[in-house]
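Re-run with default settings, no changes from the original entry. Doing this only to confirm the output is reproducible before filing.
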Amino acid sequence: MLGLLGGATGGISAASGLGLEGIGALTQGIGDYMQYQNQNGINNANAAIRADQQQIQTQNFNLMQLQSNRSSLEVLRRTQQARSQATAAATNQGAQFGSGLKGGLAQESDEGGINSLGIAQNLAIGQNVYNLTQAEDVQQNVLAGYQSKQATGKGIASLGGGLMQLGGGLATA
């Protein structure tokens, strides 16, 4: 009678062990799937943040262009005012036909040109920075895609490992 009980107890232990292995593999698979889903959520949130950052950069670029245009108009306006004042002063002194007026007007034009050149150079630098930032954002999106695929691969590999463990347990039983 004892031998029969011992055999029955061993069979119950083996069945219990297999059941626990199955539950363990299932639990591991669920955990792996949850990690995969969470990683995808993180990647999606990061992608949304990058998209918002790109929109902010675009707005900053538009602001820079607008400020450049305003500054250029201001330089032109001030140059015209200075030329008008110089011409009025020379005319009041009766020197409107002299070389002094022509030299003063040329100096005002040169100064306005130099200021406009500085504004144009600053705008060109800003455009280059914007383009580089946009290229960096593209690479960050590519990287996020690879990270998502990596998380998927890890989840599948982990699930496969759990199934192999389950299969090994069944084979020895």
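The mean pLDDT is 77. DSSP finds two helices and no strands in the chain.
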